[in-house]
Design brief:
The complex is a heterodimer of chains A (115) and B (113). Chain A is an all-beta fold and 115 residues long. Helices cover 0% and strands 48% of the residues of chain A. Chain A is built from no helices and eleven strands. The N and C termini of chain A lie far apart (36 Å). Chain B has 113 residues and is mainly β. In chain B, the strands form two sheets. In chain B, strands 2, 4, 5, 9, 10 and 11 form a six-stranded mixed sheet that branches. A five-stranded antiparallel sheet of chain B has the order 1-3-8-7-6, with no helix packed on it. In chain B, a hairpin with a 6-residue loop joins strand 4 and strand 5. Chain B is globular, with a radius of gyration of 13 Å. The interface between A and B is medium-sized, with 27 and 25 residues.
Chain lengths: 115, 113
């Protein structure tokens, strides 16, 4: 079982460049999430989706965009990279939302540096 | 305000010893409280999920407890192993937060031989 797969694992960007972080899951989960993890801080929700065609902002959405055209894929787009976006990005999925007792399954992250 | 604070920030123990990690939350009741284990360079993996009405939840050598009076959860690790070296993250789904979870900053545990 692959679970949640993120690519790339590492990336260095120059200020102002754009890129897409890829996330795919093979568990047929409706809910998918993007988080960022900064050193010593708790994960912060960037965007989430409750199903194909439906996305919503999380706690820190500025500077990011997402789309959800299929159940499996949930890419995260950075349009104009800024140093403040240097972080580790995690994608996660779950069969139900936060009110349920279903766990979120995480990918292994993309480590992004903006220089 | 919805917050989750964990202590200690880091901990070193000897293999075979027990340890307890603490998590303080600010608002109750809540929908559920979760503990995750995160190995270095990997994504978090779920250990336990407790509802507000549960006092304890076990997963092998990991036991999570909940004290509503002190607004605290503890994760107890029994007979630690080298593979327990990781960060342990406490997560709360507050009732007013929709689909958002509030993550603590984690406790970094190192188990030494």
């Amino acid at each position: 079982n692959a679970g949640v797969t993120q690519t790339p694992k590492f990336r260095i960007l120059k200020i102002g460049q754009s890129m897409t972080l890829q996330c795919t899951q093979d568990m047929n989960h409706n809910y998918m999430y993007w988080y960022r993890q900064d050193p010593g801080m708790g994960l912060k929700l960037i965007y989430y989706s409750v199903g194909a065609g439906i996305t919503d902002k999380g706690e820190v959405p500025n500077g990011y965009n997402v789309s959800r055209s299929t159940t499996e894929d949930f890419p995260l787009r950075l349009e104009l990279a800024a140093p403040s976006q240097t972080s580790v990005y995690f994608c996660a999925s779950s069969s139900r939302g936060g009110t349920s007792n279903q766990p979120q399954h995480f990918g292994d992250g993309t480590r992004l540096s903006i220089l | 305000k919805n917050q989750v604070e964990q202590s200690p920030q880091s901990l070193i123990i000897l293999e075979g010893k027990n340890c307890t990690l603490q998590c303080n939350y600010t608002v109750s009741p809540f929908s559920n409280l979760r503990w995750y284990k995160q190995d270095t360079g990997r994504g978090p993996v779920s250990l336990t999920i407790m509802t507000f009405s549960e006092n304890t939840k076990s997963n092998g050598r990991y036991t999570a407890t909940l004290d509503a009076d002190t607004k605290q959860s503890s994760l107890h690790i029994t007979a630690s192993q080298l593979s327990d070296s990781a960060s342990y993250i406490c997560v709360v789904r507050y009732n007013n937060a929709g689909n958002m979870l509030t993550f603590g900053g984690g406790t970094r545990l190192m188990v030494k031989p």
